[in-house]
Amino acid sequence: MTEHVAVVGGAGAVGTLYADAFAAVGRTVSVIDPATESGSDVRRPDARTSATLGAADVVILAVPESVALAAVPVLATVAAQAVVVDTLSVKSGMAEAVARSTLAAAVGLNPMYAPSLGMDGRPTAAVVYRDGARVDAVLDVVAARGPVVRVSATDHDRVVASTQALTHAAILAFGTALGELGVDPEVAAALGPPPFATATALLARVANGTPEVYADVQQGNPYAGEARSALGRAVATVDASCRDIAAFTALLDEARAALGPELTSASTRCAHLFDLLRTAPPRETNQEDPS
């Protein structure tokens, strides 16, 4: 029997990403999205939406956290045997909601890239809240397109606070400082070395993003504040170490140690990026989610 997948919020960028992925492997996909009149609010489903959810083997929640959390007890009733899949950027709250529920199975996915970039070859974090017969089948569909990294909800949120919240905060702080210095952007772009070109490219991507999406990375993650505080302390350490070569050398050693065994591959990746900066023509991109 062909699995039936219901994608709540399926008209959005993330919902479309997963609807297309499951349809591509032969699953029957139904989109539930009040924005396009294809179904009612999952928190208060009407008869048609309840029937769609009840017939689903997999229910994917490509919706904001408040909606996803409120949907859990509803789905425990109307989709009691389905695997419930969230796509939230923070997993602790969903883990608690699932623990309090009677859901048969639940797993959280977090695509670590903007949907506009596509799924192929890109990593996805997976948090199995409650295992079940179809959980592996869901993960297999995603793993066929790119690496799936399984982590706990707590580890997910701690890592994402570093890979997204810290990274975005550092990029935005760079942009704010750059603006305060008042350097002519065109002159800076013409003279800037590769690290500057890379930093400004990242700044353009983040600053052109959807404010609500990037704010959610900072506001929703319980470890994001800790990451920003660490960034503030680090900038102060850089400032203090500039007065003494021994202290600055120690700073470089400490920063390098943060990469651990990834140092060599990161160095190679940087060299490749700098080569691309020299040879690749710019292209326009549309971005809705953090990457």
TrEMBL record:
UniProt xrefs under PROSITE patterns: PDH_ADH
Annotated ranges, domain Prephenate/arogenate dehydrogenase: 3-281
Highest taxon of the lineage: Bacteria
One BP annotation, GO: tyrosine biosynthetic process
One GO molecular-function entry: prephenate dehydrogenase (NADP+) activity
Key words, A-Z: Oxidoreductase
Keyword Oxidoreductase on entry: yes
One Pfam family linked to the record: PDH_C
The family this protein is said to belong to: Belongs to the prephenate/arogenate dehydrogenase family.
Name by which UniProt lists this protein: Prephenate dehydrogenase
